Amino acid sequence: MTYKEKAQDIYNLLGQGKLMDAFEKYYAEGVIMEEPTGKRVGKAACREYEEQFLNKVQEFHDLQVHSLTSDEENGITTVENMMEVTFKDGNRVQMEQVAVQKWEGDQIVHERFYYNAG
């Protein structure tokens, strides 16, 4: 599989409600995840963060991938996406972001999310 196909598979799994399956399959043990609100280092810390996010969600309504590009030579994929969810507090939101993923072999070793945190 190309890096682009792997990234597409992640979002296919997310669309099926299998976020943690995608995480376990495609993220390296030493992964670093960065976003405007902070940085997490290591798969265990990132897993805990993802599980906490899922525990706050009441319902997933939509997931759209607006663009997905890859630099196969350098192992970089970029995904622009939108996710709409209702949280358990009743707040329904559309979250738009861009994820830049650095791959080594079959796994992501670094992922940075760009979005408006305000």
UniProtKB/TrEMBL annotation:
Domain SnoaL-like as annotated: residue spans: 1-115
UniProt cross-references to SUPFAM superfamilies, sorted A to Z: NTF2-like
Entry protein name: Nuclear transport factor 2 family protein
Taxonomic lineage: Bacteria, Pseudomonadati, Bacteroidota, Saprospiria, Saprospirales
